[in-house]
Each structure stands twice: as structure tokens, then as C-alpha cells.
């Protein structure tokens, strides 16, 4: 019930995925970014259909063949790209030399483990062993709009990074008012709004993109984990406004856009976007939460059951580790989250 930490969205050995990856492996596994490949360009359709504002630039490729970036650093390199793109945008937008360079993220957040993304990750145990990390990040309380506004209005913030739903942080959902308030504050201050949908995107909430549940569109969105159905990939989507500041050569990666991974991603997208798929995710999620509520009713250690779609957490008043171990003894794989007192399921 952990899907490889929110990765194997189609399960294990999905026959369509296996057939597509096998066929691509027999055709072309890797090519450099000097040329484009058909799977790479075809993956442009990862841009959300609900809002026609997205580009998926990796400046390794010449426009107009901008496409997704397949990351050799599984799941979290898109945060580093987003940091770079935000700083480049601000430099272009303010050529007089006073471009903001700092960032804001939130308590309980998780944006990755590379040196740049570590600086945006709030959990001290992840950052301290590698200190000093990149300076210039302020953490505000998740959900506290007034506190966030004060930081944004300082004029020092290049971009605000936020998860519409926190996974690692304990399955906490943002409110529409919070996200819309961040959107308005960023617009007023000239900062960019970045949604990290690495864990909550690609259908897991019952929406293709978690932000669709709120009707708030960011300037940059990061994707990874489930997109390629089990192979490592990272994608950064940006609005046309941000894309206009990015040039060929601003970003590059040896394994970016490799055809094998892009074909895997195309197959995963095909299945998630089939009629009825997302509705089934939402239905199963509601049924699962109702079942948990029934089965755990009256259990003194259960504080709350929460989540959207098939990303669900059970908050306990005791450490969840022993329960996770007991589940594993019974061949059920679940994970902990938050401060170690949340059992999470993310399929």
C-alpha cells in the first residue's frame, strides 16, 4: 500500500507498460540532447489540459522542441530546476541588478535531498548533516497565510515553494484560501509560485493535478515519482511567462528526455487519462477512508484519518513504527510520515 513511496501508480508489471518499455528498449534506449526523439517530443502533452498555460522546458533542447527532463536523480531533481528557472526569471525581469534571490517554503514540507532542494526542506534531520546548505530560505507555517504574506512582501523572495498536499509532512491538505492567498501575494510582489506535485500529482488525489481541486494555477509545477510508472523521471512545467526567460543551454542533463523513460511516461499518462480512471481513484479513496473510520472507530490511539483520493494518512498519538513493522509481518507495506506518528498509504 505504499507503491514504492508513491511511484508505482499502475502497480507492478502492468502489461501495457511492460509492452511499451520492452518495445522502446528494443528500438532506442538513450540518445543525447543534441537531437530530439519522438517519445521526448510526444511527452509535451504532459502539460495539463485543464489550463492551457503550461510549457515543459528543459533548455537542453532548442525551441520549439522544448520537452520534459528525465532525471538521473530519481524524483527530486525538478526542485533544482525550479530553483534555477525562478532565479533566471527574476534576473531577466529585473535587469537593473536588484533581482530577488531568496525562497520561501513551509513547515513539514519535503522538496528533496540534493543540496539545493535540501535548503527548501523543513525537516532539520535532513538538512543538518550536510550544513551549510544553500542560504536564503525562509520557512513559514503551512496554512498560515498572514505569516507567509509578510515574508513575500519583503521583496526578497524569488519564488514560493508549496505542496498542495504534503505527503512526507503527514498528509496535510492546503485550503483554497491559503493557496489563493499565496497566488495573490506572489502576483503583488512579483514572486513566482511553485507547486510541488511530485507526490500528490498524476491522479493520486482523484484529479490529474492536485491544484485542479483548488482552482489555483502556479507559475511552475514540479512532477516526478509516478510519471514513468517506476522509472526515474523529473519534469518541470512553467507558464509561458517563465518560459520566455529560459534560453537554450540554461539547463542540461546527460540523461534528460531519454526515449525509454519518456515512452514509459507516455504509457502511464495514457492509462491515467482513460475515461473513468480518476473517478475510480476518488471512489476508492472515499471507500477506503470510510472503511478505516469504521474499523478504527473507538481506537484510543487514532487521532485523525485524512487525505484525498488514494493518498491517506492515519495520525496516531504514539509512534507509528511498531505498527508499520507489524503490518510488514503480515505482508502489508505502509509508510510513516510527519513526525513519525502518521501511517500513510499512497497508491
TrEMBL record:
<feature type="compositionally biased region" description="Low complexity">
    <location>
        <begin position="55"/>
        <end position="76"/>
    </location>
</feature>
<comment type="pathway">
    <text>Amino-acid biosynthesis; L-arginine biosynthesis; N(2)-acetyl-L-ornithine from L-glutamate: step 4/4.</text>
</comment>
<protein>
    <recommendedName>
        <fullName>acetylornithine transaminase</fullName>
        <ecNumber>2.6.1.11</ecNumber>
    </recommendedName>
</protein>
<dbReference type="GO" id="GO:0042802">
    <property type="term" value="F:identical protein binding"/>
</dbReference>
<feature type="region of interest" description="Disordered">
    <location>
        <begin position="53"/>
        <end position="78"/>
    </location>
</feature>
<dbReference type="InterPro" id="IPR050103">
    <property type="entry name" value="Class-III_PLP-dep_AT"/>
</dbReference>
<dbReference type="GO" id="GO:0030170">
    <property type="term" value="F:pyridoxal phosphate binding"/>
</dbReference>
<dbReference type="InterPro" id="IPR005814">
    <property type="entry name" value="Aminotrans_3"/>
</dbReference>
<keyword id="KW-0496">Mitochondrion</keyword>
<dbReference type="Pfam" id="PF00202">
    <property type="entry name" value="Aminotran_3"/>
</dbReference>
<dbReference type="GO" id="GO:0006526">
    <property type="term" value="P:L-arginine biosynthetic process"/>
</dbReference>
<dbReference type="GO" id="GO:0003992">
    <property type="term" value="F:N2-acetyl-L-ornithine:2-oxoglutarate 5-aminotransferase activity"/>
</dbReference>
<keyword id="KW-0663">Pyridoxal phosphate</keyword>
<keyword id="KW-0032">Aminotransferase</keyword>
<keyword id="KW-0028">Amino-acid biosynthesis</keyword>
<dbReference type="InterPro" id="IPR015422">
    <property type="entry name" value="PyrdxlP-dep_Trfase_small"/>
</dbReference>
<dbReference type="GO" id="GO:0005739">
    <property type="term" value="C:mitochondrion"/>
</dbReference>
<keyword id="KW-0055">Arginine biosynthesis</keyword>
<dbReference type="InterPro" id="IPR049704">
    <property type="entry name" value="Aminotrans_3_PPA_site"/>
</dbReference>
<dbReference type="InterPro" id="IPR015421">
    <property type="entry name" value="PyrdxlP-dep_Trfase_major"/>
</dbReference>
<dbReference type="GO" id="GO:0009570">
    <property type="term" value="C:chloroplast stroma"/>
</dbReference>
<dbReference type="InterPro" id="IPR015424">
    <property type="entry name" value="PyrdxlP-dep_Trfase"/>
</dbReference>
<keyword id="KW-0809">Transit peptide</keyword>
<keyword id="KW-0808">Transferase</keyword>
<comment type="similarity">
    <text>Belongs to the class-III pyridoxal-phosphate-dependent aminotransferase family.</text>
</comment>
